[in-house]
User: What shape does this take?
Amino acid sequence: MAMLPKVELHLHLEGAAPPAFIRGLAKEKRLDIDGIFDDRGAYRFADFDGFLKVYEAATSALQRPEDYARLTLAVLEQSAASGVVYSEAFLSPDFCGGRDVGAWREYVQAMREAADQAERTMGITLRAIVTCIRHFGHEAARETARCAAETAGDWIVGFGIAGDEKVLAPKDFRWSFDCAREAGLRLTAHAGEWAGPQSVRDAIADLGVERIGHGVRAIEDLALVDELAERGVVLEVCPGSNVALGLYPGYRAHPISQLYQRGVKVTVSTDDPPFFHTSMAQEFDRLHRAFDWDDGVFAKLSRTALDAAFCDADTKTRIAKILEA
Ligand code: ADE
Ligand code: ZN
Assistant: This one.
């Protein structure tokens, strides 16, 4: 599975930061965040709330556009080593210049240049989805949406929401999603991870998203599963993330196979790979072992992911040739 060409739709850029990279940056900046690492140098957290805290503490070491350029290169190098040929990463103006449009533009330019370099040297293509953070509130989300709208184009192609699903509701972010849609951005939202099926229904009805980040708890309502299948809503499923955070006890208990069998457009991603001790190659491998999925199934999943990608048609045609080769 390791070298099958892969398409990844759900990857948080900061969440993909190797711990050694963050530790090195923190050292350069004389920042004491040693508490977020265990004695083997991995990120240390006990549950989802702890994960979010460690994530934000790690992000505090990323302070300038150059840091984000280096991060982009480090992350794409990891993804390319897993066979990923096209990736969409979540970027947050909250962490990149504090939601100031002028600062945000500088971060975007730095990340885009790094992505262009990775495309030339590693053969991996990156596009970006600007993401607001639910527990930072709806006012912050409006500022984030303005940043997204100002930079929407052929590289920033989508808008989404991540963060703590237990806080506020999709409808509280309607203005931000309308703003992003009007700027031509395609839409996705984290739902059905820490809240049940109704959160998936709400994200679709209130925000008009075409993809759902996770969405796996739709399985608790089979009428919803059938509706997702009929409407062609794409799920960005991150099995390793769900298992690592204790949503399911293991891959065999994960609903991705049931969702797939019932006709839902599922795709596979890593979410925050070093946090969850995973990679795209490992995800494919673990799914192969849990469900006996073969190369044919994985080729289909990659094709589904490419069809659901937010990039332009020319980019899709180019990537499709790589998948088919
Ligand atoms: N931010 C990074 N990873 C996330 C996840 N799995 N759920 C919600 N917000 C996140
Ligand atoms: Zn996520």
Observations:
- The CA atoms of residues 11 and 271 lie 4 Å apart.
- The beta strands are 6-12, 84-91, 125-133, 156-162, 186-191, 211-214, 234-237, 265-268.
- The pocket of zinc ion (ligand 2) is lined by residues 10, 12, 162, 190, 213, 271 (CB under 6 Å).
